[in-house]
Specification:
Keywords: DNA-binding, Transcription, Transcription regulation. This protein folds into 2 domains: 64 residues, Winged helix-like DNA-binding domain superfamily/Winged helix DNA-binding domain (Arc Repressor Mutant, subunit A, Orthogonal Bundle), CATH 1.10.10.10; 159 residues, Chorismate lyase-like (Chorismate lyase), CATH 3.40.1410. Helix content is 30%, strand content 34%. The protein is an alpha+beta fold.
């Protein structure tokens, strides 16, 4: 029940209860929550109070509306802090979800001019082209293609990547330890092919990532990823240097 003597406003108390219900899975992902009228009756508050709580929850990504159908719980959004080198699988696990990966293709081919330029190798040099679907709790959240310089990872096998993940496979099977990466990202709309893999509609909001990974000063991987905008977000940790 709400506490009218609390210093916290009634709308904020309603908002907190709804968040608790979502976190405790009383209302599960993509489920419809009670209508405004029902919430008013449940918490003995006005419709203005309920609407304010729902509006903030929608703005913060906890809820979404379907015209004429009601208000629904948004799926979990994973937050990646960009302060150090990271692995998708390890970060997803830290956030309490079960990571998994499905390999779509695993090929060896000559690097095209763009890939050769990114990896600073000759255009006739060979690379692994590894396309994978990334999932959290069995739900797709990203699709990525990694181009790995062949001469640094000749021992790499598809089964190794499936079992250990790419970076761990490079370390365990090839003695290559990725330790530095440069990543850029921008907002895009999902194309028709990626939409099928990601289980979203074409033109859905997404993040497009380009990453160049190095080991001991050598560029070893160029990775291109499309990440669902409703499932992932990035935060950047800044240092304490003062502006002058």
């Amino acid at each position: 029940m709400l506490d009218e003597n609390s210093p916290l406003s009634l709308y904020y108390q309603v908002k907190s209860i709804i968040i608790d219900n979502i976190k405790n899975k009383v209302w599960t992902m993509n489920s419809k929550i009670p209508a405004e009228r029902e919430l008013c009756e449940m918490y003995k508050v006005s419709r203005i109070t309920v609407r304010q709580a729902l509006k903030e929850l929608e703005d913060e990504g906890y809820l979404y509306r379907k015209q004429g159908k009601g208000t629904f719980v948004t799926g979990q959004k994973f937050v990646q802090r960009l302060s150090q080198f990271y692995s998708f699988s390890e970060e997803i696990a830290k956030m309490g979800a079960i990571p998994s990966t499905k390999t779509i293709s695993f090929d060896i081919s000559e690097a095209d001019p763009l890939i050769a330029e990114k990896l600073q190798i000759g255009s006739n040099e060979m690379v692994f082209a590894i396309k994978r679907l990334r999932l959290a709790d069995n739900e797709p959240f990203g699709i990525e293609t990694s181009y790995v310089v062949y001469k640094y990872a000749m021992e790499l096998k598809e089964e190794d990547v499936n079992q250990f993940g790419l970076y761990n496979a490079l370390k365990l099977k090839c003695g290559v330890i990725p330790n530095e990466a440069t990543e850029t990202f921008e907002a895009v709309n999902v194309g028709s092919e990626d939409a099928k893999y990601l289980n979203v509609s074409k033109n859905a909001a997404a993040l497009h990532l380009n990453r160049i990974t190095s080991a001991n000063g050598n560029k070893i991987e160029y990775c291109v990823s499309t990440i669902r905008g409703d499932k992932y977000k990035y935060t950047i940790q800044l240092g304490s240097t003062f502006l002058k």
